Amino acid sequence: MTTLISVLLVLSIVVPFGIYFKSEKSKKSGKTALLSNIFSFFSILVVSTVCVFASASAAPADASNTAGLAYIAAALVTGMATIGAGIAVASASSAALGAISEDPKVMGKALIFVALAEGIALYGLLVSFTILSKF
């Protein structure tokens, strides 16, 4: 079932653009291809979501709440650590580029600060792996 849904989603993207490129290119045919692409993609997406949730509700509840909360915690740890690392790397790397442009001798020190900022994401991954290894 999932393979069929995947194939339908890919076809809903490829077929309208294939029709557009094979036909005479005009503004109207471009809009028609885009609208048919959007309609077919989202309709297949809604149907597949309904099918997945219908089969998931029929499945027996084997998983405990603790495992679900652990997965949510691991996702939050990874996401927040990555966002924090992105913010830190953005400010550290721009400052490092400014310092390197003034004095090329400070490149090693600047790279250390950028690497320290990137370490935040690695620590987040380590914590999420630790959480996931318990379940």
Automatic annotation (TrEMBL):
It is a multi-pass membrane protein. One of its GO terms (cellular component) is proton-transporting two-sector ATPase complex, proton-transporting domain. The chain crosses the membrane at residues 6-22, 34-56, 68-98, 110-132. GO terms for biological process: proton motive force-driven ATP synthesis. InterPro entries: ATP_synth_F0_csu, ATPase_proteolipid_c-like_dom, F/V-ATP_Csub_sf. It is found in: Membrane. Residues 72-131 form the V-ATPase proteolipid subunit C-like domain. Keywords: Membrane, Transmembrane, Transmembrane helix. GO terms for molecular function: proton transmembrane transporter activity. It comes from the Bacteria. Belongs to the ATPase C chain family. This is ATP synthase F(0) sector subunit c. The lineage of its organism: Bacteria, Bacillati, Bacillota, Clostridia, Eubacteriales.
